[in-house]
Amino acid sequence: MAKGRTTMKDIAQALGVTPSTVSLAMKDDPRISLETKQRVMSMARTMNFRLNPHMANLNQKTHTIGISIYGFDFANHPFIGGMIGGIQAEAGKHGFSVMLCNNNTERIGNSNKSFFVNLAEEGRIDGLIIHRGHAEDIRKVTNLGIPVVLLNTHHESLPDIPVVHVDFEHAIYAATEHLIESLGHGRIGFIGSSLYDQVGRKGLEGYKTALEKYGLPYDESKIRFAEYDDPEQEYKMAYDLLSSEDRPTAVVTIDDYFAMYTINAAYDLGLSVPEELSVTGVYDFPTSAMLSKPLTTIRIPLDELGMKAFHLLNQQLQGTEIPQKQYWIRGDLITRKTTRFVKS
Questions:
Q1: Structural domains in the chain, sorted by start
Q2: For the chain, which terminus, N or C, has the lower number of CB atoms within 10 Å?
Q3: What is the 3-state secondary structure (H, E, C) of the chain?
Q4: Quick one: pLDDT at residue 203?
Q5: So what's the pLDDT on residue 108?
Q6: 3, exposed or middle or buried, with CB in 10 Å at 0-12, 13-18, 19+?
Q7: pLDDT tens for residues 73-122?
């Protein structure tokens, strides 16, 4: 028996079903069998479940899903735009509207409550796709029986929630391998997001794996980390790396913006790209092909990322159990003008 206030998740665990099945049963959804509905309602009475009066709308379908984005200006950032495009395209096919919110800035009064938690508690969404977010806020939503899918987010405390990731380990491995095998580079640097960030850790693993495969030493002096959304720090890390005495002949970066700041730092140091320095990125943002030296990068199908997230959410909305919880979207190498064969 659950301690404290009983949640839909508690009922689901007691019955061996998903929280979304409990939620659908309480909404008298026709997709849920009469037997299951009766079991849910019986267990709810046994566990003294009481629906919060402020959550009465949870018993009504909204045909709306929420997309919660953390830390980006989602009107302009190409990662967010591509991902949302994939979600919207699939949601529209299934009769759903989409509601966007930025959970890094939108809070409710002085309560420090995430905006997406408020949407869920007010019954304004049927499901939620979250790009980053605090684990405790995410759990508040699933405890309401509202299905959630995470994007590029990993919480050890949320192993039951499906996650769709960009496969940064594979992306950085592919870029590093190309520089070694096809272009002959032996001194390759890596600039990633914070080592405390899953993206940075996975990228570093891919970099190390490629070096090991080709018998090249791992040298920590050629590694730098910077925070996402901090262009000044990203530029400084690149400048610092390229100013070193034994500077690399190529740099693999965690995304296209990191690559652009690395190219800027190279130019400020009087280095020519790609004649004296090769640079790669990840994502293939629209601007990446429009630079004076179009960027070699790993193209990530961002619309596929969004479509996969919606499909996983829709499965839960249908009451379907999702046994696999981790999904990885891989990209393809796009060679352009910022890489070349290393000078002997």
A1: 1-44 (1.10.260.40), 64-166+304-329 (3.40.50.2300), 168-299 (3.40.50.2300)
A2: C
A3: CCCCCCCHHHHHHHHCCCHHHHHHHHCCCCCCCHHHHHHHHHHHHHCCCCCCHHHHHHHCCCCEEEEEECCCCCCCCHHHHHHHHHHHHHHHHCCCEEEEEECCCCEECCCCEEHHHHHHHCCCCCEEEEECCCHHHHHHHHCCCCCEEEECCCCCCCCCCCEEEECHHHHHHHHHHHHHHHCCCCCEEEEEECCCCHHHHHHHHHHHHHHHHCCCCCCHHHEEEECCCCHHHHHHHHHHHHCCCCCCCEEEECCHHHHHHHHHHHHHCCCCCCCCCEEEEEECCHHHHCCCCCCEEEECCHHHHHHHHHHHHHHHHCCCCCCCCEEEECCEEECCCCCCCCCC
A4: 95
A5: 44
A6: exposed
A7: 555 678 888 899 999 999 999 999 999 887 765 444 445 667 888 888 88
